[in-house]
Amino acid sequence: MAASSWALVTGGAQRIGAFINRRLARAGYNIVLHYHRSETAALALKKELEQHQVEVVMWQANLAEPQALPRGFQTLHGRVPHLDLLINNASIFEQGTLFGSSLAQIRAHMDVHLTSPWLLIQEMMKLGTGQPGQIINILDANLAHRYTGKSAYFIAKKALETLTELAAIECAPKIRVNGIAPGFVLEAIDAVAGGPEPEDINLLQRKVPLDDLYSAIEFLLANHSITGQTIAIDGGSHLKCPPYMLKN
Ligand SMILES: NC(=O)c1ccc[n+]([C@@H]2O[C@H](COP(=O)([O-])OP(=O)(O)OC[C@H]3O[C@@H](n4cnc5c(N)ncnc54)[C@H](OP(=O)(O)O)[C@@H]3O)[C@@H](O)[C@H]2O)c1
Fold first, then answer.
1. pLDDT value at position 248?
2. From ligand 1's centre to the CA of 86, what distance in Å?
3. How far out from the chain centre does Cα 162 lie?
4. Mean pLDDT by 10 residues, the chain (248 residues)
5. Which of 17, 81, 82, 177 has the smallest number of Cβ neighbours within 10 A?
6. CATH assignment of 6-246, among 1.10.3720.10, 3.40.50.300, 3.20.20.120, 3.40.50.720
7. Which atom of ligand 1 is nearest to the CA of 34?
């Protein structure tokens, strides 16, 4: 990685996104710190990341309003010379069966998981990269199962999976595009207290540690021959629908 490399992790102020940003800053990446509502957390994280002697540019954007993104990109131009790594991580994860999902819910899930990542990929191609670039889309290992409890989420993530493959074709040879499909890493924000029993989580009976998730990112960053692939980091939950999924 060049000393001047820039990374953008969407939804990067909290939880998994913030963890990835911390690791990237520690590895020397300058960071475009994207957030939607978490301004306080983003400001605190900015200070923390700057301790690694990297540049941090804050970027507030609602990815459920993709029509506003081109204006948002203008604010980045001039401040960010190029983008070397884009991680499409931002997500909403709402309950709703196929029949029970509202139009607003369907649109928001599609915009956050598909339309905005698509526009961001186009923007990255325009901005250019300082070196061969990389895009990593955060998917979900449980896309392997036909689970209807969160239909808008799963259908939108499935579309992001297809975008990953098509973008790998169109972005080559300048940019490699891959997916990471986590299993159970963190409780959902709206999870009820208690959490699942270990045997309910996945075949390996433990949550996926954040370190394991990041080590897959490091692997993709270091391996220059992989594009259009998705790696499941999930304790085997893509093989067998974990019982906790069926309970919520
Ligand atoms: N947690 C898990 O165990 C798990 C399992 C499988 C897959 N994943 C995937 O891993 C990724 C990270 O998971 P997570 O649990 O850390 O995600 P999360 O907390 O549910 O969401 C991450 C961020 O997405 C941002 N976001 C939501 N709506 C947005 C919008 N309209 N515009 C812009 N940003 C928006 C939020 O930013 P603000 O806070 O700034 O509003 C939020 O902090 C997601 O893609 C998720 O699907 C996670």
1. 62
2. 15
3. 15
4. 85 98 98 98 98 97 96 88 96 95 98 98 89 95 92 97 98 97 91 83 96 98 97 96 80
5. 81
6. 3.40.50.720
7. 40
- pLDDT recorded at residue 131: 80
Do the beta carbons of residue 10 and residue 87 sit within 8 Å? yes
pLDDT of residue 129: 81
Integer Cα distance of 92 and 101 in angstroms: 14
Protein residue whose Cα sits closest to atom 3 of ligand 1: 185
Query: What angle do the packed helices 39-50 and 15-26 form, to 10 degrees?
Result: 20
Half-sphere exposure of 39 (CA within 13 A, CB side): 4
pTM, whole model, 2 decimals? 0.97
Within 8 A by CB and 6+ apart from 132, the residues are 173, 174, 175, 176, 224
Q: How far is the CA of 90 from the centre of ligand 1 (A)?
A: 4
